[in-house]
Structure formats: C-alpha cells, structure tokens
Amino acid sequence: MPVYQILSNIRAVPAPSPEARQLYSLLKSPHLQALLSAHDMVAQTDYEPVLPPLPEDLPEDEEAMRIVCLVKNKQPLGATIKRDEETGEIFIARVIHGGLADRSGLLHPGDLLVEVNGNPVEGLDPEQVIQILVMIPNTPQSTKTQKPLYVRAMADYCPLQDPAIPCPDAGMVFSRGDLLEIVDQTDIHWWQARKLPSASACAGLIPSTSLLKSKQRETWWSQPFQAHTCIKPSGFRRSFRLWRRMTHRTRRQSCYSCSPNTSALSSPYEEVVSYQRRPDDPHRLIILVGPSGVGVNELRKRLIKLNPHTFQGAVPHTTRPARDGEGTGKEYNFVTKELVSLVCPRFLEYGEYKGHLYGTSIDAVKDVIDSGRMCVIDTEPHSILSVRNKTFKPYVIFIKPPSSERLRQTRRDARIITSCVVNRPFKDVDFEEMEDAARFMEGKYGQYFDRVIVNEELQDACMKLFNDIQLAQEGPHWIPAAWLSTED
Ligand SMILES: Nc1ncnc2c1ncn2[C@@H]1O[C@H](COP(=O)(O)OP(=O)(O)OP(=O)(O)O)[C@@H](O)[C@H]1O
C-alpha cells in the first residue's frame, strides 16, 4: 500500500491510539517518504533481462543442488575456479569481495561446479564458465567476515607479470608505499585487498606475505651480483653545506655501506594503523629527502625562516675546532674524534671533510623535539631507517624534480653548489643525474615516503611543504602499527 494511502487511513481513524499517532508522524517525515517512494519505484519496475526458466530435467537429488543464474554484463564474474587434480572436479576457489559473484550472494568458495549452461563442466575450460552454474553447494558455507587488516606495501607487484596467479584479471597491481586494506586472508597464498583510499568496491588478488616473500627471494637470487648498480653517488646530496661536507669518496662509501639491499628479504607488507597526534604528544619528526640539487635545502631553509619559533633543524656535530665567535650548540656541537667514535651508532649520518668529521646525531634531533618545536631535517634516504621508530614517528616528504622541461625552465637562473665546482649554473648533466637519482630513490625507498612534493615553482613548493607539515602533525595518518604498540 502506498504511504499516502496509509496516512489517509490513519487520518480517518476518529480517536487514533498513541502508536497510530507515532506511526503517522514517522511516515510524514520527508526522509522516510523519499525512502519509501524510492522503494516503491524499484519494486514496481520491470528489469531486463528476464531470467531463463529452470531446466526441466533436474536430477533426482536436486535438493543438494543449487541452480544459479548470474547475468553478466562486461564485468568479470569476480570468482576463480580450480580443478581438483585427483578427481577432476571443478570448484569455486574464491569469490572476490565486492565483485559480481559476491554481490549476488550466489557463489561461495568450495561450491562444486556440476554444469555450465546445461553442459557438464568436465573437460571444460575455466573461461567457459558463464551465466548458469548448476552446482552442489559447499557445506558448511563459510560466510565468516574477517576483520580487515591495513598494510603498507613495501614492494611492487604486477599480476600480469606473475605466471603463478590463478587469474591475472582478478589480480591487483600495487607499488611500494601503497596502502592496502586486506579483506580476505582465507587462502594461504592469495589474499584479497583494496587500495586505499578505496574508490572501488571490488577487491583484487594479491600474494600473501609468505608467497610474496618467496617470490622476492627467487628474484633476488636470480639477479646477477651487482655491487654498485643501485647507487649513483653523484645524484645523492653533494653540496658543501655546513655539516654535509664530505668527499665524493666518503659519500660513495657511506651510501653503499648504509643502504644494504635488504628489501628483498624483509616483510613485503607492513601493518599500519590510523594515528592522530594528540596536542600533548611530541611533534613528529619531519624528514625531507630528494636528489641532490632538487632544492631540499632551499625549501628547508625557507620553511625555518617562515616560522623559526616552530620549525628548527638539528644542530650538527663536528670535530673541527671552533672558530672565533662560534660557540658549541649554535652552528655546531664541537666534539672530539674520540667522542664521535664512541657515539657513532647514535649518528643519523656523518662524513669526513678535510680530516674533520661532520654529522647529525639522533640526540640532536631529539633535543629539538623535546623543546616542543618541529624538527625538520634533510637526509640521505637510507638514513630514514635509523629514526623510523615510535620515538620519532617520522613523516617523510620526498622532494621530486618536475618534468625535464619544467626543471630546465625553472632552474634557468639557479646555481648549483657541488663538491667539484662551487656555485655554477646547472648543466644538462646535473638535470639528468637529478632525474636518475629521483627515479632510483622512489624505486628503492618509495615505501617510506608519506608525501611527494614536486618542486616546480619554489614558492608553491614551499607553501605545499608548510601545509603538509601542519597536516602531518594534526593527522590522521596511517603509521606502522608497531609505533603504537606498547611492546618495545
Ligand atoms: N623550484 C626552484 N626553482 C628554481 N631554483 C631552485 C628551485 N629549487 C631549488 N632551487 C635552487 O637550486 C639550487 C640547489 O638547491 P639546494 O641547494 O636546495 O639543493 P639540494 O636539494 O639541497 O641539494 P644538495 O644537498 O646537493 O645541495 C639552489 O640554488 C636553489 O636556490
């Protein structure tokens, strides 16, 4: 009965009960009326196509059978099937969350396929499984919903390049750094996940942790030994800035020794949780990384100048003697070589220039944070790992060069400071090195980047940086679950 009819019936009652009055006022509400009207419209519409009639010659034990009619459009079925090697029977292997089969509620993992379009499935290709499936349902049906697990991908994956995936079309591509919501871990090899922020309701297949680890191990072992291929020292930071002073040779060594190729053997997914910094929590450490010459230092300097009471860098250490007017704790912490060697592991990065050591200690970073300010540092990307922990909860921003053309246009009047030639205009080779290094850094360390800022127009990039840092401190953000765990 339409809603207006019910309303008029209630109105016609001479002395309506309190329940009738309440029903009347509920049904009068515009939201409910809109809902009921939508319902009536849907219920009264004829939908195409009309489903075919059930087959007449149903087998005698029909009670154990389920006849399923799925009318497919261009969408994939959203289920994979597998053949039992011993019996030759074909089963539904998995139903993809949010896919056609899942939304229909008609197919379940473990269902045994008996017929497809009236033809026995025996000998049929999986691709031939189409609209009508006659099957024996799996009992008991597993409808248990799992609590989603949120992870950050620490590796790249492309289903089209994976010959082992049961159905490449059902696979999901992801790159290191992507946030994934894992909705199904029933299968030990193939999980189902969505990428966050999730626009698509349909999940995709991804390898489980153990499977992806074994794939990584295989790839790693099958690669020819390459001692230096991943390092392009010239593209890493090289300016002669204060504590960055180090020779080309030391930098190469420090890059090489500090960035072991362990990614192939570490966990491919990192569990993450949503985190919102409370006003009393210490500020998150802000780390800027980027290829040499891209403008990391320029941006950091501008940011600190913008608000020196809020942003601060860490005071570097050096073994060079203090000059007139220099006091320890201002430009530098002046220390002896012996002290540096004692506290070496507590250094984020360090290098040698003209016989003196220069470096940034983890304690210097902590001092800034303890003072209530936001510590903004720029480092080589491999140094991120030394502070990637619950104490610092670092927020890593990758400063990326713009397109080749814009890079050359915007740096037309800029000057580069290098260890070989001080203060000269940029050359083509500098841009090429910068682009190579940016690609390399994204490829190797992209999983640690919370944000990427393209440094095209300096002023714009600086404002983006400023806003991002505010957002980083005010959250919410996904951070490794281990950073919130109470265990050490
Ligand atoms: N968006 C930009 N447009 C024009 N010039 C820029 C831009 N960003 C940076 N520069 C200039 O490029 C030069 C190199 O920048 P900067 O010293 O900050 O490099 P860097 O990334 O810190 O590299 P390194 O550590 O090797 O010095 C500087 O002269 C800087 O002013």
Automatic annotation (TrEMBL):
Belongs to the MAGUK family. Residues 146-216 form the SH3 domain. PANTHER family: MEMBRANE-ASSOCIATED GUANYLATE KINASE MAGUK. Keywords: SH3 domain. This is Membrane protein, palmitoylated 4a (MAGUK p55 subfamily member 4). It comes from Oncorhynchus tshawytscha. The keyword Isomerase does not apply. Residues 67-133 form the PDZ domain. Residues 283-470 form the Guanylate kinase-like domain. Gene3D superfamilies: 2.30.42.10, L27 domain, P-loop containing nucleotide triphosphate hydrolases, SH3 Domains. Residues 1-50 form the L27 domain. The keyword Nucleotide-binding does not apply.
